Structure formats: C-alpha cells, structure tokens
Amino acid sequence: MCPVYRLTPREEASPRAKANLMRGILTGSLAPELLTKDDFKSVSDLCFNCHQCRFECPAGVDIPKLMIEAKAQYIAVNGLKLSDWLLTRLDWLYVIGGRMPPVSNRMIRTPWIRWLLDKILGVAQGRKLPQFAKTNLMRWAARERLTKPSKQQSRKVVYFVDGYANWNDVELGISFVKVLQHNGIDVLIPPGQNVSGMSMISEGSIAPAKNLAVKNVELLAEWIRQGYQVVTTEPSAALGLTHEYLHFLDDGDAKLVAENTVDSTSFLMQLHLSGELELDFRPLNASIGYHLPCHQKALLGHCDDKAAPGLKLLRLIPGLQVDLIEKGCSGMAGTFGLKQKNYNRSLRIGLPLINAMRSPTIVAGTTECSACKIQMEQGTTKPTVHPIKILALAYGLMPELDDLFSRRSEELVVTC
After folding, report:
1. How do 412-413 and 129-130 pair as beta strands?
2. What is the pTM of this model?
3. Where are the beta strands (DSSP E) in 206-249?
4. Are strands 229-232 and 156-160 parallel, antiparallel or unpaired?
5. 291 by DSSP, 3-state: which?
6. DSSP letter, residue 366
7. Taking Cα atoms as reference points, which of 321, 345, 322 lies closest to residue 333?
8. Which of 240, 253, 139 is nearest to 189 (CA)?
C-alpha cells in the first residue's frame, strides 16, 4: 500500500522497516543519537505522510506518526534547509503572493524566475504551479456578510477554508457556500483562520505547526460550542483537524474540534443518506475521471475507492458519466512533489494516474485534493476540478462554470 515502496521495492522504503528502526531506538538496541543522523533522515524522508499504511496495518501501528516524530527530532538538532523551511511556511507564501496576484502570477510564468526558484529554493522548474486568484475567499466572504453569524434558525456550518481555496481556487469556496445555502444550511466563514499546517506536520516541523493548531482549535471550538459543525473542502485540512492535531494538543478543545469536523463530500453524503440533500440537478452530458486522494481514504478509514462519498455524489447527477480511476497515489503528497529533489520520483509514482487522465474517453478529472489536482493536470491540458464545483454546476448555482468541461487548464502554468 505504500506508494514509495511500490516505486522502490527496497526494505528501507517499507513501513515495516521504519517501524523496526523506531522499535530499535525505543528498546535501546539502537542509539537514540541515530535520529539526528542524515542516514536515518534519508529513511524517514521515504514517508510523506499519506497514511495508507496506518489503516491497513493489522497491528494498528501509526507509522506516519512515528516518522513525523523522527523528523522532528532531526530538525530539533539540525534545523531545516532553506527550501524545506520555505515550503512549510505556506501561510507566509500565500499572504506574500496574494497581495499582488498579477505580479505573482507573472513571476511564476517567467522562465528565469522559475530557474532561480529551482536553483536557490529547490522548487522544481518543470512543476506546474497554481496561480493566485484575483481576490481571496475571505474578502469575498466579508462582502457577502458571511464572516458573522446570522440569525437563521437552521443547520449551521463553519467553513474551514485552508490555503488553496482561499488564495488559489476561490471558485471552489464560493461553490461550496452556494451548495450549502441551496440545501438550507447557514454558512459562517469566521475571520482569523490559519492554514491547517499539514505541510509543516509532514515535514516534522512541529513547533510552528502547533502554533497554527492552537489558534485554529481555539477559534473553531468556540463556534462548535455555539452549535456549528466544521466542514472543509480540503481532505488534508480535515485530516489535520481530526487526527494530526491530537498528537500534540492534548486538551478538550482539540478533541471537540476533531469530533465535529468533516470533509465536504462526506458532509453532503450524510445529508443525502438522511434524505436532506436537494436532488434538483440539471443533466450534465460529460464523461469525467474521479481520483480518490490518500488523505480522503485516511478520513474514511478504508481503501475501498468505490465507497468514496465524492464518487457517489457525482453519480447522482443525471447524464454525468463518472469513471473511477483506481491508480493509487498521485505522488504529489502536498509539497513533496514541488521539490526538485523529489520531482522525478513524484512523477513516477503518479504516472499511472497521469496516463489515465490522457484517456480520450474522459474530458476532465475530479478529485477533492488540491495537490492531487496539480499532479493530474501535470501531463495533460484537461482540467481537474473539485466535486463540489461540479455539484454547483449541476445545481445551476455558478453560471461562470458553464464552460467547465470545455475550458483548458488556464488555472495552471508551466515553464520548461
């Protein structure tokens, strides 16, 4: 089940090897100082926190947690390289790049800028990068008066936006809000949200991740106590709130947030199963390919792609042909696939998925994960969109999405 082991079937790449190394350190048969050595770091870096081994391990060993702790020990002694530090501080990068979107987008389209990013910061020159939207979702929410609670007496949801929907794909956030409102749900997008910090957690940079987690938990727990449920359109963010935060926040608020957080497609599927989801979809005559992300699988707690809530929701739309792409991990793994040192490995892991996207039988891809979206669009001009945007299109809520299946992938740029 390990994407890295499937690509490189060596013992050190297997989850078993990582568990045995940590057991050796914990039992004293290996020196604790080994955690601070580059040799051990090279093994722990073979885990990019996809969580596939966690729910398939018959002994219930949380290998990703062990590797995050191992990376944290290494960082505590040796620190982070500049490129690794940069790609863990997405909260800063989003704010800086989002201040002047036209300038930022021009820069990431400029070959010599991309060359500098490659040589100095380690960001792969050949990797397609998401553009910044003209505005961000929080500004839109403020204009729509969604940043303060309404007096509507209905089911209430707090939308935890995370970085990608806020800065890159504002259409996704707007689509989600409109889909919820169409189903009679009151939506609140409270200001003061931070990114989930999953890039920090996966890298083992625990101290800044904990700072973000404390702020997010404090904000969200207060709204939960007022009757709201937390929903996010990013599976990695949902996994952070429901699983990762509990590793370093041992308090009641963190548990409260974990128990009351769900991803967007699971939330809508719960509505459907309870007979509360509006089914007034207009027909969409298109054939699309659905990919189930690793973190979405981890949230579901099983690896049955056919039971994915996003897939089931899309198949409720008349006329829409949804083909399940069962090709395993995309290989992007958050910021892992952005790095030059991982670029070729990332593409090799994701090649089956990329090849499936090239099939003439599908006109577009769909997945819940923003990182998987980048990989799915890496080797094709076909767009990949979140299932929520397709639902909004089928509801007729987003006229600007009417050409969704005919537009080329204008949201991404590439320089070679």
Report:
1. antiparallel
2. 0.93
3. 229-232
4. parallel
5. coil
6. E
7. 345
8. 139
**Cα–chain center distance at 203:** 15
Token readout for 98 is 């989002």
Task: Look at the chain and report how many structural domains it folds into.
Answer: 3
- Residue 380 Cα to chain centre, angstroms: 21
Examine the pLDDT at 410 and tell me if it is beyond 80.
no
Are both 311 and 364 inside the same structural domain? yes
Using CA atoms, how far apart are residues 410 and 416, in angstroms rounded to an integer? 17
Within 13 A of 66's CA, how many CA atoms are on the CB side? 23
Query: In angstroms, rounded to a whole number, what is the distance separating the alpha carbons of residues 188 and 308?
Result: 26
Average pLDDT, the chain: 91
- For 92-136, the pLDDT digits (tens) are 888 888 889 999 999 999 999 999 989 888 899 999 999 999 999
In the block, residue with structure tokens 């949200």: 193
Interatomic CA distance for residues 227 and 232, integer angstroms: 17
Round to whole Å and give the CA distance between 327 and 362: 15
Q: What is the pLDDT of residue 416?
A: 31
Are 236 and 294 in a shared domain?
A: no
Query: Could you list the residue range(s) of the whole structural domain that residue 180 is in?
Result: 137-272
> What pLDDT does 408 receive?
44
